[in-house]
């Protein structure tokens, strides 16, 4: 499972393990779903927002609760620009490494922050950090949240990955209905700055739209 998640293109065998997660959107329209995890932070999120705006693109931001609290104005910019936001836990916990009790508590803490800004959301989107859930966590959370995974991983978080390779990971693998993982994090900053403008241009010129969920 650990290694299976670390592919540029998610295997259908893997997505079948967690069938109630959304791995890709079933659509015939030329739509891509860009997702940005781990923000909002001052160093990266405003850049992402500016680039999305240039192409009238919408995206989904899976926010860390403590980052929302630290950067409320940037979070508000995400909302004002019409993007969707989702829960990415309060402290970016790995579900495999903590008890269910601690994990659920941390998700609720992030959800409380989101609720305080937005009121009750429908649907409530959640992406587990690292895509990792124990079966017990999966079965509880899928009844309360819309679990959003991905079919294309950019690897922008990988410090050893070249910027051009990150770009190609997305250009070569994204297709109609794809959910693409990127990060508005410090680790991903230089790669996102390189790849995002080119991704937006390439797919916009091919007639794709970028949509929120
Ligand atoms: Zn994350």
Strand and helix layout:
Layout (H helix, E strand, L loop, with lengths): L1 H4 L6 H6 L13 E7 L7 H10 L4 E5 L1 H6 L1 H9 L3 E4 L12 H19 L6 E2 L8 H10 L1 E2 L4 E2 L9 H11 L5 E5 L5 H17 L3 E2 L3
Parallel strand pairs: 1-2, 1-7, 1-8, 2-3, 4-5, 6-7
Helix pairs in contact: 3-9, 8-9
List key phrases describing it.
two-stranded parallel sheet; 9 helices; 14% strand; 6-stranded parallel β-sheet; binds zinc ion; TIM Barrel; alpha/beta; globular; 43% helix; 213 residues
In words, what does this structure look like?
With 213 residues, this protein is an alpha/beta fold. The chain has a single domain, classed as TIM Barrel, CATH 3.20.20. Helix content is 43%, strand content 14%. It contains 9 helices and 8 strands. The strands form 2 sheets. Strands 1, 2, 3, 6, 7 and 8 form a 6-stranded parallel β-sheet that branches. A two-stranded parallel sheet has the order 4-5. Helix 3 packs parallel to helix 9 and helix 8 runs parallel beside helix 9. The radius of gyration is 16 Å and the shape is globular. The two termini are 26 Å apart. The model has no long low-confidence stretch (mean pLDDT 95). It binds zinc ion. The site of zinc ion has 5 residues, from loops.
């Amino acid at each position: 499972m650990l290694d299976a998640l670390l592919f540029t293109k998610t295997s259908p065998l893997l997505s079948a393990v967690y069938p109630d997660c959304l791995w890709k959107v079933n659509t015939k329209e030329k739509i891509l779903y860009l997702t940005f995890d781990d923000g909002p932070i001052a160093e990266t999120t405003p850049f992402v927002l500016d680039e999305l705006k240039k192409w009238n693109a919408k995206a989904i931001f899976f926010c860390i609760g403590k980052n929302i609290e630290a950067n409320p104005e940037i979070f508000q910019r995400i909302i004002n620009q019409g993007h969707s936001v989702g829960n990415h836990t309060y402290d970016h916990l790995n579900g495999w490494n903590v008890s269910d009790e601690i994990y659920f508590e941390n998700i609720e803490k992030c959800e409380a922050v989101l609720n305080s800004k937005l009121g009750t959301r429908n649907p409530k989107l959640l992406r587990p950090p690292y895509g990792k859930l124990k079966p017990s966590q999966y079965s509880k959370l899928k009844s309360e949240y819309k679990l959003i995974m991905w079919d294309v991983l950019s690897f922008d978080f990988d410090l050893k990955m070249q910027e051009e390779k990150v770009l190609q990971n997305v250009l070569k693998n994204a297709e109609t209905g794809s959910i693409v993982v990127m990060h508005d994090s410090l680790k991903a900053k230089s790669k996102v700055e390189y790849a995002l403008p080119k991704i937006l241009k390439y797919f916009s010129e091919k007639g794709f739209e970028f949509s929120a969920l």
